[in-house]
Design goal:
Number of strands: 0
Distance between the termini: 47 Å
Number of helices: 4
Radius of gyration: 16 Å
Largest sheet: none
Order of helices and strands: HHHH
Shape: globular
Number of domains: 1
Structural class: mainly alpha
Strand content: under 5%
Length: about 100
């Protein structure tokens, strides 16, 4: 139960991040929001992740969650990379 509470708090932070990120990058915000909601669902219904994983051809639900988290982390990293390379270039707000 303690792990569920901690994970829920962290996933709520992801939801807040997606809300704050929406103006800068709607695609990343939408993916983060979906990931946060899916994460909350799977934290509170862990057996369902195994069913979904088996349906798409991955053996275990834990593996599915790790693969998805790696993909989402890569997207967020790629979203932040241009700002790290050129901090004075605000690429996201070019209008």
């Amino acid at each position: 139960m303690i792990a569920q509470a901690i994970l829920s708090l962290l996933l709520c932070c992801v939801l807040i991040y997606s809300w704050a990120e929406y103006r800068r990058s709607p695609a990343v915000a939408l993916l983060s929001f979906i990931a946060g909601l899916a994460g909350l669902y799977f934290v509170w219904m862990p057996a369902h992740s195994t069913h979904v994983a088996e349906f798409i051809g991955i053996g275990r639900g834990a593996d599915l969650i790790m693969y998805l988290w790696a993909c989402i982390s890569l997207i967020v990293l790629l979203n932040l990379h241009p700002l790290a390379v050129c901090p004075e270039c605000d690429i996201a707000n070019h209008r």
